[in-house]
Specification:
single chain, 238 residues, mainly beta, seven-stranded mixed β-sheet, four-stranded antiparallel β-sheet, 13 strands, 31% strand, globular
Length: 238
């Protein structure tokens, strides 16, 4: 119990000044540039209210006016890159005290990605990674840090052609023992899929699908955690 308390206090202290944002996307291994094709929030603070529209695409993220949209072939490999500050400094991309899952969702825009606010039951989960090793307490965030802030997803080739929002999410659980405590770091990119198929995948709403009482949102990760279920339901494989 004492060790768990010390771990919590240390993580809280580390986390006070260690926020981060998604700053780059890569398309099939090609860096698109800093904050290009991304809805950039006003600062690197997390979202903590799961009922807020900020949960969709971060603060001021309901419009992509002035944001470019990158064309990607169906089945592309997309890499998201996160950092604490506005440059690749060589420090941990996200603080080592920020433990939690990494997830990716996609939503098809009715017309253009830039005009799409991402509201309603429109989001499909295409990637999720959480607690990787209960014994060592290795999390998906540890892998992101080890990979210089990067994690990747293959866009299902069965998705129809058109414009989409891609939503990457890292949930930091270091102070998630009570709500609001979990920190949601969210980045949305605008993409246009070419080719593709005719799949109609399952969808959820963000906000809407997450609840303060979800065990993946309000959880004590310092109490000998053996398993973890991320919010938002299962991954659609395509």
């Amino acid at each position: 119990m004492k060790l768990a308390l010390l771990s919590f206090l240390a993580a809280a202290a580390i986390g006070a000044n260690a926020h981060f944002t998604m700053q780059y996307i890569w398309v099939n291994g090609v860096d698109q540039g800093q904050n290009v094709n991304i809805r950039v929030p006003p600062n690197n603070n997390p979202v903590t209210d799961v009922t807020s529209k900020d949960l969709t695409c971060n603060v001021n993220g309901l419009s992509g006016a002035g944001v470019s949209t990158v064309s990607i072939p169906a089945g592309s490999n997309i890499t998201f890159e996160w950092h604490q500050h506005a440059q690749r400094t060589g420090e941990d991309a996200i603080s080592g005290g920020h433990k939690g899952p990494v997830q990716v969702y996609i939503a098809k825009a009715p017309s253009t990605a830039a005009s799409f606010d991402g509201q309603g039951t429109v989001w499909t989960k295409i990637y999720s990674s959480g607690l990787l090793n209960a014994q060592s307490q290795e999390w998906a965030t540890d892998v992101v840090n080890a990979n210089n802030g990067k994690h990747s997803v293959v866009i299902p080739s069965s998705l129809p052609a058109g414009e989409y929002l891609l939503r990457a999410e890292i949930i930091a659980l270091h102070v998630a023992q009570s709500y609001p405590g979990a920190q949601f770091y969210i980045g949305c990119a605008q993409v246009k899929i070419t080719g593709g198929g005719n799949a109609n995948p399952p969808k959820i709403a963000l906000p809407g699908a997450y609840s303060p009482s979800d065990p993946g949102i309000t959880v004590n990760i310092y109490n000998n955690l053996k398993s973890y279920t991320a919010p938002g339901g299962p991954v659609w494989s395509g």
